[in-house]
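Async update (no meeting this week)

Hi team, since we skipped the sync, here's where things stand on the single-chain job. The sequence we agreed to prioritize is pasted below, unchanged from the tracker. I ran it this morning and attached the output directly underneath so nobody has to dig for it. Comments welcome in thread, and please keep replies under the output.
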Amino acid sequence: MLSSSTLTDTREHSILNDGSKIVRCDLVPWTRLSAPGLEGISYKILNFDEDRGYMVLVNTFAPKARFAPHKHLAQVEVFMLEGSFFYDNGKVFANDYMAEAGGVTHAPATDEGALMLTILHGPLQILNEEGNVAATVGIDEMYELARANNAVAHLRRKYHRATSSPT
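Output:
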């Protein structure tokens, strides 16, 4: 009979015999987004798939953060763990799940701060005051920023699209 006492407890990131992955989130440092208009967001990449274009992360919004308008090019799913955020169309509270349609443009904000599990199904575009694209943020940008922060040791990247060579 299987019991927790018969399992190895390494408290390290693990790839299991069946191919499953355990990420010890406390071992992953927070990475701050540096794109203009996204200051106040920190994240930890938990998983991603370059071929399918999605990324799973846990992220935080600092208290009183206000973000630049941005457009999600694909669906975003959020499960709010703590706190809340709001924008023109509504407010998301702790223990809420939100599926945001691709193509949505908004400028979220928070008063109390927020901690959430987020699944990005594609990149987002940061818009300037004229409504033009100032920057695009997706897997490549978020991975490279996290790599520079020593926050990707638990991840395996097949290739880097910009160079088409393994990293």
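Quick observations from my side:
The domain at 30-148 is CATH 2.60.120.10 (Jelly Rolls).
Helices lie at 139-148.
Reply here if anything looks off.
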